[in-house]
Design brief:
Layout (H helix, E strand, L loop, with lengths): L2 H6 L8 H4 L10 H33 L3 E10 L2 E8 L5 E6 L10 E8 L2 E2 L6 E3 L5 E10 L2 E8 L4 E7 L4 E7 L32 E6 L16 H20 L2 E4 L9 H10 L4 E8 L9 E6 L5 H10 L4 H14 L5 H22 L5 E7 L11 E8 L3 H6 L3 H18 L7
Parallel strand pairs: 1-5, 11-12, 11-13, 13-16, 14-15
Antiparallel strand pairs: 1-2, 2-10, 3-4, 4-8, 6-7, 7-8, 9-10, 14-16
Helix pairs in contact: 4-10, 6-7, 8-10
Length: about 425
């Protein structure tokens, strides 16, 4: 019978033990084979560990890491401000390097190393500036735990690096030689000079004034019980004051915002510095938990132990009182280069004239004096700078006055008279 017929009849054919168990005839694995199997097993374990880390653990770790989201700059030939925006607070260090011909680097570099951070895919890694101070700003993942931002320098006289919060950002201010100092060696960094009083200035010498209407856009500022928003009042005052000053001084009057738009605080300062302004006036409306609080007060940049001033600075900075306290150490250094004496004199003249003008037309306006506080918008200004708090929007009577065009007109008259007094203008404004 053929095998075919046996199969068709369903008959079984006796088979050997080897046929039933093929593994019985296999030879023991060689040494090379054992090594291959061991490596294959280790590779599988390693791949499993990598899978667990990158797909299960890493996303959570990265989510908690600070991210460098954006880098912006503002500049003129004597000043550049670079702002690094981060997703959250992070420790950082800065270091100014000398030229290094050994690696073909014939310029100085300022390094900012941000610890525990990572870059985002959309971050611009190289930003050309070429303003006479900086060549470029470069950013990259220096190592797994550090983002490095490099400022390639053409010329430098001094620099400051400081953080601001909510949202967290690192601000770098670089200054260079003004035309009168061109004899200095390029790249030399010198100690900040003490602020010198400007003395009496002829109106013709005031070429530019920057007015800064506070808040704007999604930031309404303080809101009165009747619904009046600080951002709307400050913008109206800014426009009125611009017209008044332009008519009386003939100077160029620049506004940080002329519409209902949000401008970050550090950008407002940068606008004034970029424009090389002679004066900077930030206009705000006060607010307090005490409904009876009222009056006018004028601020310049300084440290403060007064709790009410620190509370106000925290509100205007859109941050916490703790962040205001953290700024104290940085301000100790920054105030050395601020136009402190000039700012005090400017603030005093604006405060006195503003209170006087308002009381001539409206009775009972309280003058709360000139004060110092750590306002972000005044940090890093390179000209006499003040912040005016015009009345309390939280006070029902003063909220009503802030909606009165006659009252706003007297506010403008008072601020303008103070500015004219400061620059030595004669006669009534």
């Amino acid at each position: 019978m053929t095998s075919y017929s046996v199969a068709r009849q369903g008959l079984s054919v006796p088979t050997s033990h080897a046929a039933r168990n093929p593994a019985a005839h296999r030879l023991p694995p060689s040494g090379a084979e054992r090594v291959r199997r061991l490596l294959s097993a280790k590779t599988g374990i390693r791949l499993l560990i990598q899978f667990i880390f990158f797909y299960l653990l890493a996303p959570a770790a990265f989510a908690s890491s600070p991210t460098v989201n954006d880098i912006k700059y503002w500049s003129n030939p004597n000043y550049t401000r670079v702002v690094i925006s981060l997703g959250k607070e992070s420790a950082f260090t800065s270091k100014l390097l000398k030229k290094d011909p050994s690696i073909n680097v014939g310029w100085r570099r300022l390094l900012i190393d941000i610890k525990g951070a990572r870059t985002t895919p959309n971050l611009d890694r190289s930003i050309p500036i070429n303003d006479g101070l900086l060549k470029t700003v470069r950013a990259g993942q220096f190592d797994a735990d550090t983002v490095r931002v490099v400022l390639d320098i053409d010329s430098i006289e001094d620099y400051k690096v400081f953080p601001l919060s909510n949202p967290y950002r690192i601000v770098i201010d670089v200054t260079g030689d003004k035309p009168a100092d061109q004899g200095k060696a390029a790249g030399e960094v010198r100690e900040p000079a003490a602020s010198q009083p400007l003395g009496r200035i002829a109106p013709g010498r005031i070429k530019k004034i920057v007015l800064d209407p506070g808040h704007g856009g999604h930031d309404p500022g303080a809101i009165g019980k009747g619904g009046l928003k600080e951002k709307d009042v400050t913008l109206k005052l800014g426009r009125l004051l611009r017209e008044k000053l332009h008519a009386k001084l003939g100077s160029r009057i620049i506004m940080t915002r002329d519409t209902d738009v949000f401008i970050p605080l550090e950008e407002r300062t940068a606008i004034a510095n970029r424009e090389d302004a002679d004066l900077f006036v930030s206009i705000h409306i006060n607010s307090s938990l005490r409904r009876a609080a009222s009056g006018v007060e004028t601020y310049m940049l300084n440290l403060s132990r007064d709790e009410e001033s620190r509370r106000l600075a925290a509100r205007e900075n859109a941050t916490s009182r703790k962040a205001v306290s953290d700024l104290d150490f940085i301000l100790n250094d920054l105030i050395k280069t601020a136009k402190t004496n000039d700012s005090v004199r400017l603030a005093s003249m604006v405060q006195d004239n503003l209170v006087r003008k308002l009381n001539e037309r409206f009775g009972g306006v309280k003058g709360n004096g000139v004060k110092g506080a750590p306002f972000y918008v005044l940090v890093g200004t390179r000209m006499p700078s003040i912040l005016v708090e015009v009345s309390f929007i939280s006070n029902p009577m003063e909220e009503k006055r802030l909606q009165d065009d006659k009252y706003l007109h007297e506010v403008v008259e008072g601020i303008a008279a103070g500015l004219m007094s400061y620059i030595g203008g004669a006669g009534s404004i």
